[in-house]
Predict the 3D structure of the following.
Amino acid sequence: MIWNKVETVSKDELHAIQSERLIKTVNRVYDNVGYYRKKMDAQGILPGDIKSIDDLSKLPFTDKYDLAENYPFGTFAAPMSEVVRFHASSGTTGKPKVAGYTRNDLAVWSECVARCLTMAGMTKEDMLHVAFGYGLFTGGFGLHQGSELIGAATIPVSGGNTERQITILTDFKPTYLCCTPSYALYIASELERMGKSKEDLNLKAGIFGAEPWTDEMKAEIEKKLGLKAYDIYGLTEITGPGVSMCCDENNGLHVCADHFVPEIINPDTLLPEGDNTVGELVFTTISKEAFPLIRYRTRDLTSIDSSPCACGRTSPRMARIMGRSDDMLIIRGVNVFPSQIESVILKSSDVAPYYMIYVDREGLLDTMKIKVEMNSELFSDEVKKIEAVERKLRHDIESVIGISASVELVEARTLPRFEGKAKHVIDNRKLYK
Ligand code: DLL
């Protein structure tokens, strides 16, 4: 099932929609936002130079530092009288990134989330348990609005209070659950601890996102909660969740490209990359009124595939996010993504899917220690067996990331649990400001 026929238009039709909307957006920001006018003037570009979407790469990039400099509302392109909502996300720059929405911006966002939920097979007959946080974070409100637009019965549980989440899951018996993948795993383990199982639930599918996760984690969640897991992607600056979502074919996330135009660039040369090459994802919003963004550098690393999908949608698909360029750890000169370590841990049946990565610097040498929780069977085993599992994990991790790391198995339930986005890395080297 497809929510909106625009998801299946031909390449030429999409090109025409994108071109018309880009031209409107460029005029809007040039006329209303000093920041964009100055940047375009400095590069000698006038709105008239943008004649179609093919001219996108003539426009300057925007990044989180530009937003911090113009905090909180300096890049808004609508008067405050038109703004009806704010959301914000904390940034590494110290200032939150603030998004403003007009009534129409909220309608477009809901429409995109409705498309995503439909990709997961949700209809008005379904019931959605929303365990994403409600508040400045976009997760709760975003999924909520899309679900109501479809007409599904929507439960605004928000994050936290896991026992209450489980009571609602077992009593209301929702057919869909949405939250971060790490919280889904936590809910599964608490369910077990409370002496319940997936048989007490009625979940058909789960819609998970807001943080990087792996295929192994997907398989683990599906097994433990007895559902089919879908990946939803988005970021506050672009709209929130609903920028893209995977369909049943599970071969990438369909981007709502009639509203958010994706590009992949090489983060070093800033030049556009072709299809199926990994690089930094950049978005231009072409229908937003309050907070349009031109060529916004997300720092997320992925690739784009524009070939048609067997589901019938023609929208470009992004591969599962492999990490953020600013989450990437450089350890002894080697680039390491936490997701690489996670996939090794999740393949081992001797440990639980809970881990923390500690990075330190001793003298001039970077060190990395990975703490992983044992599962209860291993915990009751003899020390020799535990040491053998530690050795195997150390070996497997080294062969995936290319450098050595120490591995320590710790008792079950001793590492932190996360109700929102998980934070798996503690970097004590203080290399960055
Ligand atoms: O996390 C919006 C969201 C809410 C998406 C609920 C999906 C579900 P921010 O807090 O601004 O917004 O964080 C955006 O989270 O740039 C990615 O690095 C990461 N992220 C979001 N979705 C995914 C995903 C929301 N499916 C940042 N896979 C983004 C990997 C994701 N990373």
The chain has two domains: 1-326, 329-427.
